[in-house]
Amino acid sequence: MAQPKRLRGISYQGFSTYFVTSVTSHRTKAFSCIDFGLWAKQKLIATAEREKFAISAYCLMPDHAHLLLNALDHQSDLCRMVSAWKQQTGFAWSRSESGKLWQHGYWERVLRDEEETLPIARYVIENPVRAALVSEPAAYELSGSTVFTIEQICAATQMRYRWQR
Question: Is residue 47 part of a domain?
């Protein structure tokens, strides 16, 4: 699969919010291995902190990952952050499973300033429920946020949707 091209006119550095999706090579169900998934989750959180990103939501599905990232500094660099995490996890995977972990590249959407992150965060954390892996978002060990609790994400968007009706 070809690498998605980065958007022209966007530096991917500085204060922005990004919704990122990355898919494993050949849809390998790498994150079905809970030990590897928990380790990859720890690496994601550590890499985001080092690269100055907050993670409004993340979900490591068996064969792909969704990340909702908020840059916290003018030097925050999305490409560097995602590349560092994929490199760490890919290297570990290749040493233990002797295969490639990730497809080349990833898809991203840069959120506009007026876009709310909580509805997207809810989409991310409800992925395992839609895939029938768990019955409620809080039951999935490989999703969460460094900003909100799962309960806050669900409650905030429920209130918003009730109010809009």
Answer: yes
